[in-house]
Write a structure and sequence with these properties.
The chain is α+β, with helices and mostly antiparallel strands. Among the domains are: about 445-550; about 715-825, Immunoglobulin-like. It is globular, with a radius of gyration of 36 Å. It is built from 37 helices and 10 strands.
Length: about 850
């Protein structure tokens, strides 16, 4: 049965409710309204009772009035003409002697998002903003923010924003808090409006109100204080002293907001100041207390603590035990605690940290065990004095022979080798004993790296690498790349013994692989070995930079911004608001004082989605906000026509093989590295054309004539999305005519006929100059080439990005839609002359 059937009320029920709503008895009327609200709550449509419910507004009963207002808020949008009937009652209620009714009326009018009602709201709202009762004033303050969301211009014209600013000086703390909340919300949608003009006098009023507000009022005020930049360290200290008592509040949101203010203002305090040390000690207990709450609150607190520890580890350096994992912690809490433990690890506490981590490595939760083993490696890299103890702990874990523990241990030992070269290589023999148990790509790649890096110390290194080579094509790309590099390293160290092995791996990488990354690396090694073995040795066996534990830290400028957003979603995601807030064009990037160069906020240059990039073509170019910006942002250089290096011709491949077995490698095995490099083949010396040289025809007539370039075809409509029809295509300008050149491929089991095409409105009015000419039916597995001439006389509408084109293609099966992007250069005329309108 359809869900909509449950939302319908039978006519008899509606009739009964209508009769009860019009009853003379107050109690019966109130019960009827309750029934209406109950029906509305479970999703039943009771809009037919709108006039009858509105008639019940004329009552002194506060409970009944609340119910009627609730109904009005729900149905006013769908019945705007009927809602006008209630306006007189609203205006009358705004002058009621009872402050609760006045507040209720103005709140309800603010919640009814109907344009016709907003114009009637102005006068009652103006009176309520100056009402003698603080409850009415605080309700009216929030109503201004709601009205601004509906009609910003009306609010500015009526002077409500100035009245809101005046309310910051109100004698009642809750009115102050609501005025701050309303102004902050309006300022978020208009970041350049400077509504909250904070100065020392205003800050003093806010701090005075802070002590007497409700908890949510305190949060609004603290968030507002966090946007203020003190004039000097004395003012900063004064504000910190008055905010510090909030750290002992029962509400965790108040605590985090207070921490945010203190973390920001601490930047301006000299570190040699006595108060600075006192403040550090005061910040630790409230953060520790947050970890005794429910798991969900613990997680939010831990994510914020993670940021605080990265900025100021000294705050919690003596609180390591608080972050030890409990047996009943959820996995998300365990992993976050583990991360903070590593950040707090130091020479003073490393012994107890390692003891804990070794204990965690014997747990039953596989994910947690893996992280614990990795944490031991991170401790070794971070605290040099503990490295030997960490390696010993990892070897003990390898002896347990637990498969996933062994694999994680090998991965982290590889990192320890990178950090401390030529120090712990004695453990390699133990690692090689576990070679057969490795089945995860990362562990196999790590082991291959170790064998290749220390090949001269491993007698049977060639046999070990050859065992991996047997299933080369079944390995992941990560392992294949590592194996290729390791065998080349081995060859450069032991050239006489591994000639066949290196030839085999280079052949597999270049001839038998379709992975462009692997193929590219294979060609580079092949060319290096065959032309300049000395350079090959310098490149492949070059000394590697030491790694550090700092690689997983958040980038400093991002960390500063996240510290300014403590207690918000940004601090939980560890991403700036612009990365996940939809329509965040106006979101400002905040900076800590004294470390951002200037006190001004920097707006994000990229207002598009930062969370990810769509796999499907076309790639979206972020909007620049104006037509000229879009035009200048487009890349006019023709894209590369190949995705990797061109495979050598048969003669070239033979030459390469000859070099590999002859001159290049003979010089390695025989007369040292003194042989002259072989000449580069013609294909490597060919001049590269393209870019601006082609665009302005600076090539002196060599290469492709100007204007004739067309990008390679790309798949616009995959077969899986179009019931077997695949369309790939490109755009070209031929003899002054723009053409859409397409390949239609039938990957279905039935014949396709009756093709037609249509464009949506676009930035330059591109439209088909004629019908799509597919003269013969397209049989299964058949492809057909089609060239569709285009003109620019179609309807115009600016697209995002500017050169986006939305297309509909019809055939005998269905209608299919796709979008593509055309190069702007296709619209340029050949003579390059400007029309008079541009002069």
């Amino acid at each position: 049965m359809s869900d909509s059937l449950f939302s319908l009320m039978c006519p008899g029920e509606i009739f009964e409710l209508k009769a009860e709503l019009n009853s003379d008895k107050k109690e019966k009327k109130k019960e009827a309204v309750k029934k209406v609200i109950a029906s509305m709550t479970v999703g039943k449509d009771v809009s037919a009772l709108f006039p009858d419910v509105v008639n019940c507004m004329q009552t002194d009963n506060l409970e009944l009035k609340k119910l009627v207002y609730l109904y009005l808020m729900n149905y006013a949008k769908s019945q705007p003409d009927m809602a006008i009937m209630a306006v007189n009652t609203f205006v009358k209620d705004c002058e009621d002697p009872n402050p609760l009714i006045r507040a209720l009326a103005v709140r309800t009018m603010g919640c009814i998002r109907v344009d016709k009602i907003t114009e009637y709201l102005c006068e009652p709202l103006r009176k309520c903003l100056k009402d003698e009762d603080p409850y009415v004033r605080k309700t009216a303050a929030v109503c201004v923010a709601k009205l601004h969301d509906i009609n910003a211009q009306l609010v500015e014209d009526q002077g409500f924003l100035d009245t809101l600013k005046d309310l910051i000086s109100d004698s009642n703390p809750m009115v102050v808090a609501n005025a701050v909340a309303a102004l902050s919300e309006i300022a978020e949608s208009h970041p350049n409006s400077n509504l909250l003009d904070l100065n020392p006098q205003t800050i003093n009023k806010l701090l005075t109100a802070l002590n007497e507000c409700t908890e949510w009022g305190q949060i609004f005020i603290l968030d507002c204080l966090a946007n203020y930049t003190p004039r000097d360290d004395r003012e900063s200290q004064s504000i910190c002293e008055r905010v510090t008592p909030r750290l002992s509040h029962a509400n965790s949101a108040v605590v985090l907001s207070a921490v945010k203010v203190l973390m920001k203002f601490m930047e301006m305090l000299p570190k040699d100041l006595d108060y600075y040390g006192t403040l550090l000690k005061k910040l630790a207990p409230p953060l520790v207390t947050l970890l005794s709450a429910e798991p969900e609150l613990q997680y939010v607190a831990l994510r914020n603590i993670n940021l605080i520890v990265q900025r100021r580890p000294e705050i919690l350096k003596h609180e390591m035990k608080v972050f030890f994992v409990k047996y009943n912690d959820p996995i998300y809490v365990k992993l976050e605690k583990l991360d903070i433990m590593i950040r707090l690890a130091s020479q003073a506490n490393i012994a107890q940290v390692l003891a804990e981590l070794k204990e965690y490595a014997t747990e039953v939760d596989v994910d947690f065990v893996r992280k614990a083993v990795r944490a031991i490696g991170r401790c070794a890299i971070k605290v040099e004095q503990s490295a030997e103890r960490c390696v010993s702990t990892l070897l003990d874990l390898i002896q347990t022979k637990v498969n996933y523990v062994v694999q994680e241990a090998i991965v982290v030992i590889k990192d320890i080798f990178r950090k401390y070269p030529n120090k712990y290589e004695s453990v390699i023999a133990t690692l090689c004993e576990n070679l057969d148990s490795l089945d995860e790509p990362e562990a196999r790649a790590a082991m291959i790296w170790i064998v290749g890096e220390y090949a001269e110390r491993i007698d049977n290194a060639d046999e070990l690498l050859e065992s991996f080579l047997e299933g080369f094509h079944d390995e992941s790309t990560q392992v294949q790349l590592q194996l290729l590099t390791a065998i080349v390293k081995l060859f450069l160290k032991k050239p006489t013994e591994t000639q066949e092995l290196v030839q085999q791996v280079l052949s597999l990488a270049t001839q038998d692989s379709d992975n462009p990354d692997l193929r590219d690396r294979g060609y580079i090694y092949w060319r290096l070995l065959s032309t300049d073995p000395v350079a090959a040795k310098e490149v492949v066996l070059a000394e590697k930079p030491l790694i550090s534990e700092e690689t997983d830290l958040i980038e400093p400028t991002l960390l500063e911004e996240l510290i300014c957003h403590i207690g918000t979603l940004a601090s939980v995601y560890h991403k700036p608001p612009s990365a996940f807030v939809e329509g965040s064009r106006g979101v400002q990037h905040k900076r800590l004082p004294g470390s951002a160069g200037s006190g001004e906020s920097v707006e994000s240059p990229d207002t598009g989605s930062a969370a990810g990039v769509s796999d499907a073509p076309p790639a979206v170019i972020p909007s620049q906000g104006d037509l000229l910006g879009d035009l200048l942002n487009l890349d006019l250089a023709p894209p590369a026509t190949t995705t990797g290096p061109p495979p050598p011709t048969s003669s070239g491949m033979q030459m390469g093989a000859m070099d590999l077995l002859g001159g290049g490698l003979d010089s390695l095995m025989g007369a040292g590295f003194g042989a002259p490099p072989a000449a580069m083949p013609a294909s490597f010396n060919a001049p590269v054309s393209g870019g601006l040289d082609d665009l302005f025809d600076l090539g002196g007539g060599v290469g492709m004539p100007s204007g004739a370039y067309s990008p390679p075809k790309s798949i616009w409509l995959p077969a899986m999305k179009a019931k077997g029809l695949e369309i790939s295509g490109t755009f070209a300008r031929r003899a002054g005519v723009v053409q859409m050149e397409m390949t239609l491929t039938n990957k279905a089991m039935s014949v396709m006929t009756d093709f037609a095409i249509q464009f949506n409105r676009n930035s330059f009015g591109l439209a088909p100059a004629g019908p799509l000419q597919v003269l013969t039916p397209v049989s299964p597995n058949q492809s057909i080439e089609v060239a569709l001439p285009l003109n620019t006389v179609g309807p115009v509408m600016k697209m995002e990005p500017l050169n986006n084109l939305q297309v509909a293609v019809k055939n005998n099966i269905d209608v299919f839609y796709f979008s593509c992007q055309y190069p702007i250069s296709m619209l340029f005329v050949e003579d390059g002359k400007m029309g008079e309108c541009f002069l």
